[in-house]
Design a protein that fits this description.
6 helices, 5-stranded antiparallel sheet, VC0467-like, 11 strands, about 30% strand
């Protein structure tokens, strides 16, 4: 990555050689990225808990959401949300997609009857220069994010975005790869 070039609003897609269990076959939306460090949320790690179950344990405000709570990464931290409501925005991650962490904004999001948000516990974080090193090692592929990547991913988001990137670059055809095994290190 060029110094000063931010990946905010981009997806980091784990390459087939990234076997760290925290990130194997993950898709991370970059919320913040500069020379001092980066913060992202893993989009494809649903938890076993629903948002309303968690909300009953931590808040006294009503919660209308029965969607799944997501694990945003291995780093502990406050609850975080990605959503489409500009009035509850703390950061605009990409056009029409916003991020918030403030309790008041989270309270308002979960009280709404729609599912125009995703709630995350934990996040992914990198110190200054760390992500640039991982990119240089080929551990991550990148592509600009689109709202459907964030709010409508199925179980195969890694596979579909990985294929989008590699198809666009012609990488799979050059390498004559037909299938990426669950653990490429076992080849």
């Amino acid at each position: 990555m060029e110094p000063g070039k931010s990946l905010q609003g981009h997806l980091l897609v784990a390459s087939a050689v990234l076997v760290d269990l925290n990130f194997r076959k993950t898709v991370v939306l970059m919320i913040h990225h500069d020379d001092d460090g980066a913060l992202g949320l893993v989009l494809n790690r649903p938890s076993d808990m629903k948002v309303d179950e968690l909300w009953d344990k931590i808040a006294e405000t009503p919660c209308q959401s029965e969607q799944v709570l997501h694990v945003g990464g291995p780093v502990e931290g406050p609850l975080m949300a990605l959503h489409t409501h500009e009035d509850l925005s703390e950061i605009e991650v990409l056009p029409g997609v916003y991020f918030c962490v403030q309790k008041q904004n989270l309270n308002e999001l979960v009280a709404r009857p729609d599912d125009s948000f995703r709630l995350f516990v934990g996040h992914a974080g990198w110190g200054g220069g760390q992500l640039a090193g991982e990119l240089a090692e080929g551990l991550w592929l990148t592509t600009p994010a689109k709202p459907p990547h964030i709010f409508e991913p199925g179980d195969d988001i890694w596979e579909s975005v990985f294929r989008e990137i590699t198809r666009a670059s012609g990488m799979l055809q050059v390498l004559k790869v037909k299938h990426v095994p669950p653990d490429p290190s076992m080849n």
